[in-house]
Design brief:
Elements (H helix, E strand, L loop, with lengths): L1 H21 L6 E12 L22 E15 L3 E12 L3 E14 L5 E13 L1 H5 L15 E15 L2 E10 L4 E10 L1
Antiparallel strand pairs: 1-2, 1-8, 2-3, 3-4, 4-5, 5-6, 6-7, 7-8
């Protein structure tokens, strides 16, 4: 799967380079905004059965809400294509303490200014081990060397729609094709 993600990013770059050379004088478009979403970590517990014996009260919750923001900078590549970069940072609830990442974007702008794009990058997720396994009094500091932050490549699609003076957006992403992450947000263009 990593080969697919890297091949996709390389193809996006190869498409963008010739158009970028023609659009050197074009001004970048900056969008700053807030977003909320749901991140399903997609934990695979195999054949584990936690409803038997001593594990009756053991509950794994692998989905959490995320709240945060984003900054995107897009560069026009001709009249309808654009390429850009985006950074995001979110706080989480449940099994997610925080997550943050960076991605490249390549997309199409309609006549009305709406954007549809694909993106690829890298995302880090800092897990809350106690909430993840359903043990609220679990103290991660009792386990020196326990690293609860994991990261991998992110791929996804999104859209931005201008409404009045703001931009409404929605994204659907996956991290290493193991998780599913949906976000919606509102942004302001500069």
């Amino acid at each position: 799967m990593k080969k697919i993600a890297f091949t996709t990013l390389a193809a996006m770059g190869a498409i963008a380079l010739p158009a970028a050379a023609q659009a050197q004088d074009a001004q970048p478009e900056v969008t700053i905004g807030a977003s909320v979403g749901l991140h399903d970590l997609g934990l695979d517990l195999g054949d584990a059965d936690f409803d038997d014996g001593d594990f009756d009260d053991f509950n794994i919750d692998d989905s959490g809400e995320i709240y945060g923001g984003f900054v995107a900078v897009d560069f026009p590549l001709g009249s309808n294509l654009f390429a850009g970069v985006e950074g995001n940072a979110h706080f989480g609830s449940g099994p997610i303490d925080a997550e943050y990442g960076v991605s490249g974007r390549l997309g199409f702008r309609t006549e009305s200014g709406a954007k549809v794009y694909a993106r690829g990058g890298y995302q880090w997720v800092d897990l809350d081990a106690g909430n993840l396994i359903g043990v609220p009094d679990f103290d991660e500091s009792d386990f020196p060397g326990l690293d609860t932050t994991a990261g991998d490549y992110l791929v996804g699609v999104g859209t931005e729609i201008p409404v009045g003076g703001v931009v409404l957006r929605a994204n659907l992403d996956t991290i290493a094709f193991d998780t599913l992450r949906g976000t919606v947000g509102v942004g302001f263009k500069f």
